Fold these 2 entries.
Entry 1:
Amino acid sequence: MGGTQFRVLGPLEVEHAGDAVRVGGLRQRILLTLLALEADRAVPVPRLIDGIWGERPPASAKGQVWICVSGLRRRLAETGAGEVVETRPSGYALRAGRDALDLLRFRDLVAHGRHAAREGRAEEAVGLLRAGAEQWRGPVGAGLDSALLDSAAVRLEEERVAAAEECFDLELGLGRHHGIVGELMGHVAEHPFRERLCAQLMLALYHSGRRADALRVYRDVRVRYTDELGLEPGEKLRALECAILGERTVRPIPLIRTGNAIGARKRVDRTPSHAHSTSVPVLEQEKEWQTN
């Protein structure tokens, strides 16, 4: 592909041999983004029509898609990118290798990070998950008016935040509480109803010696839930608050094995603390958050 890069984890960007490639027109940009999100898979023409025009496409929509594809091919060819938009029996496909598309790099890095975590290689897992997070520059489809892309952006944001939560679990297990407080505050501000993030922020603050701030996070969460949803926070978050208040036992226990931190539902390691080289004060309730 001659060094062509496609970036969709944020505003659409195309680059060839280090130079930016301008993809002209809203319709072309929506079409290319839709193709990139399904890289190497055919996107049916009706789906492209839906992405560009929504529920009220013009009678000429099919022909206009063909014009958009032709114009996109011509523009990419002029810059030396080559024939990367292919016609398939069921539609059109963007031929992009895993090194040429940020979305594929993100998913590969997250998959490798999760594998490393399952094998107990926490440091490596954190590095991979953070490298995956660095692929993001903003919301998918930013600046493009397309309900279909808005829906895709919601799904991909869920992937991004889930990977971030898993990374924070690992870093809490490694004792990096103070270093991730700021990031967690930002994530909670973006996603104020994700209880896992709220719990991670409470734990990071508590283990950084900021018990009052940890309790204040819970109070803010409770106000949001009751005012906006008419609900109380979930049982685990309420139990974590009780643990921090001291209504449940707080005692030194072994650092949770980080191999259990991501996607695992294994029995909690109860090996006596003297059998491990590192122990930190951990709330009893914290074990549930790190293994569920």
Entry 2:
Amino acid sequence: MRKQSLLVLITVLLIAIFAGSAVAGPGGSIASSGSSSRSSSSTSYNSYHSTNFNGGDGSIPEFLPFLIFIGIPILLILKLSNTQQIRTLKKTAKARLNEIAEDEKTFEWQKLQPLFEQLMHNTYREWQNLNISALSKYMTQDFLREQSESYLQEWKQEGFVNVCRIIKIKSLEPYLIHTEKDFDAKNGIILTVELDAIVKDYLEFPENGNIVEGTKENVQSIRYWTFILRQGKWKVTEIASRPTHVKFVNQYQKNN
């Protein structure tokens, strides 16, 4: 029985390594994955213990060690491949940004970084306040409309508040960059950055203090914020929880 428990523990740990954290903030991740992940985990747990998966005698299923033996290398290979791809994309984005900064000093990363950090803090603050009017200063119209229809309006009607703020930014790096063929220093530049931060992020019902989703504890979160430059101003146009979820740049390139 101990061997079986160890194998199950290893499997759970592997799943945890590759699973995204269930936090909300701008982008509404908590609404789309928080409660469902919790219920699905409970279902999986109950299903495991209520079926005849282990033969009822505490013995290890013959195929379980084989699955773990095969699965661990595959997961590690995928993780290493994904890490290398992210490093390559960051390196390319930084090189392109440096090229632009040679002619346009405002695009030097040491100048853009504090600007983006302030935009993120402002976006988090107004998101928590459910202030759609104020958010329009920091988000594109399309992104704000999508977020409002998907999350903000409902939360406001239900009386929920998404308590969210950045406690500490561990790192902020360029991840993807796209510019028009005819370079314009005030329009058409899209930059995705990788934010690794410690955040306070949970959904609360203020009337009784109940936590609807998330935790009051500080949580480490990695998010991919995409900004677009229009008329000399940067605005948030997408926030993705994983690299594979960054869609705006690809869609923009396809349409143009």
